[in-house]
Amino acid sequence: MRTLNRIWMVTVMNLRSVPQRLGTSFVIVIGMAGVVGVLISMLAMVGGLRQTLVNTGSPDRAVVLRNSATAEINSGLTQETVARILAAPGIARTAGGDPAVTTDMIIGVNHAKLGGSVGALTLRGVSPANAAVRPQIRIVEGRMFEPGLREMIIGRSATNEYADVDIGMQIELREDPWDIVGIFESGDSIESGLLTDTATLLSASQRVVVSSATALLESADAYEQFADTLTTDPTIEVQVQRETDYYAQQGEQLQSILSIVSNVVAGIMAVGALFAALNSMYSAVSTRTVEIATLRAIGFGSASVVISILVEAMLLAIAGALLGALCAWALFGDNTLSMGNIVSSIVFQVRVTPALVVTGIVWACIVGFLGGLLPAWRAARQPVAEALRAV
Question: Is 249 or 80 the better-scoring residue by pLDDT?
Answer without folding.
Answer: 80
